[in-house]
Here is the input.
Amino acid sequence: MARRKGLAVLVAGLAAVAARLAVLPILPIPHPFIADEFSYLLAADTFARGRLTNPTPPMWRHFQTLHVLMTPTFMSMYPPAQGLLLAAGKVTTGLAFAGVLAGVGLMCAAIVWMLQGWFSPGWAFLGGMIAAMRLGVFSYWANSYWGGAVAATGGALILGALPRIIRAERPRDAMWMGLGLVVLANSRPYEGLVLSVPVAFALFAWLFRKRGEELSRAMGRVIAPLTLVVLLGATCTGFYFWRVTGSPVQMPQKIHRDHSAVAPYFLWQSPRPTPAYDQPALRDFHLHNEMGVYLASRTVLGALAMETLRLVYLWMFYLGWALTPPLLLAVALLPHGSDWSRCDPKLHFLIVATAVSLAGLAVEVFYFDHYAAPMTGLILALVIAALRRVRAWAPHRRRVGRMVARATPVVCLLMLVARTGAASLGIRFARTWPPTALNAVDRVADYTRINQELDAHSGKHLVLLHYAQGGPDVGLWVYNESGDIDRERTVWAWDMGPEKNRELIRRFRNRDVWLVIPEGATEKLSRYEAAPGR
Here is the structure.
């Protein structure tokens, strides 16, 4: 089957989707939990309604929240690719989670296609199935709306197109590379750019070796279609920016950060001036949570600790104990006295591209594992290269290496089976941080639980969230997933004092008004009219 390349690509993608669907009884359709997820779901709702953005809602200061642009329009601050995928799920099935499933399937299929450009069909198919087992079932990429699979797909497309272009100069491969670049620009633009640098160097090094007719053919068959796809994608992205921010070159994320955040994204940058915050909860998040991370990175010990922790998190999520042994054994099997020139040229590129991507991650202030998503294909390519090297190891004519190579995917499968059976044995995975390939759990945010409680009441609701200085972190609670707040059954807003609250209540008349006051690890939901002093 692996030799039938198209079938192998399809099977890997469908296997990831089928495996995730199979564990729905123990890991049901996820609820949004992280602030970023709510932001992406706002984008999904907007796109599903056939809009690119939403008008700023009246009295918008009551609805300010993390990672959402309120002016000049009301929209997620993030690039649109993840929201578009979730929207496709909502349009086709009514569930944004269908977009998550599709994203995971496309990622695993793209990884097989990418690896087919670097390795033989059997090894490529194995890499895609490892991706399905490691990332497609119990990782947070398959169990949240946070993303990761989209950027991994974009990275796989440009990495898979590169060796095909060099070998065959087919326009369709150049178009696949262009599509991958567009996907990266609209999902993880910075990390995608970093990954694109070694790809561009390899492509232009190949191009500059050509002369005369060969150069003309390469320009027409490769550069022209690649440029066409990138220009088309850039035009669409610029149009989206224009509709959201009023400028085709201003990203919504930059506008939002300039107006709301203090801590920068990169270590060499200085903090922004502190803006005037309408909501104390948002002020605390930006000035304490984010600035705390930034200030820690400004000291030598803090920076070393953060970089070490970042590598540990990356190792735990992408490799873990299952994929580490073949990598270490492959390094140990390097011939004594070997030098760089004796390595396979393909391995040269994979190692250099990985080093460049890691260096790009190292200069960012913040890190989550989906930041490294564009280099997912690189990591799996190094794992497959290691397995190939280990498989040939036969000390004293004993096929030890073959046993290790065969054991690796078996271990991945057994870990998947063990994680699936853990629920029936009463074993619960309470620790969800740092993320690994197996520790995703079904979590319900307080925001979601209160919404479910209010669903038992008839009519429409307006919930005012009270924030107490030094109290629980409630910065993630005020979320309205619809771009049309007036149509939502339950509208969340900040408690901004009796006078401003009265104005908001008049705006949302004919709704039951509730007050939520977090108290320690719990929260108190009461009728607003019954709240003393209001």
Remarks:
- The chain has a mean pLDDT of 91.
